[in-house]
Specification:
mainly beta, 5-stranded mixed beta sheet, 5-stranded antiparallel beta sheet, 1 helix
Length: 127
């Protein structure tokens, strides 16, 4: 069985410090549906590839002050999907006290929405 691999580059970022919500997305991609994994919302487009990701309570999830999320240096999201489960890893490089500081979160959930098996990657360098 061939593994479906999709890589995309996010071309927009938004951080709402009042709501502590960090959002990476692809402008202009047509929205189809969302999947909520522990307050990380994955948006998919009509061809089942990632359109965006919104991380609610982002400063708490990454264990950093809110101001550190205003200008991330880099973001990489890896989504591995099998018929049974979804593994999500989000890595951020943030500038804290003028030093690049890597941070990551990992989440696993069941594939209750029958997302096709494969690997999806979304990245944003020097966001």
């Amino acid at each position: 069985m061939a593994v479906n691999r999709i890589s995309t580059d996010a071309n927009a970022i938004d951080y709402d410090s009042e709501n502590d919500s960090l959002f990476f997305f692809i402008k202009g991609a047509e929205y189809s549906h969302s999947l909520n994994m522990n307050n990380i919302i994955l948006d998919f487009n009509t061809d089942q590839s990632l359109k965006g990701v919104e991380i609610l309570n982002a400063s708490k999830k990454f264990g950093v002050p809110k101001h550190a999320l205003r200008n991330p240096n880099q973001m990489v999201l890896d989504l591995d999907v099998s018929e049974e489960k979804i593994d999500l890893k989000i890595s951020l490089v943030l500038r804290i006290r003028n030093k690049p500081t890597p941070n990551a979160i990992n989440i696993e959930d069941i594939n209750e929405f029958n997302i096709p098996a494969g690997t999806m990657t979304m990245s944003c360098g020097v966001c």
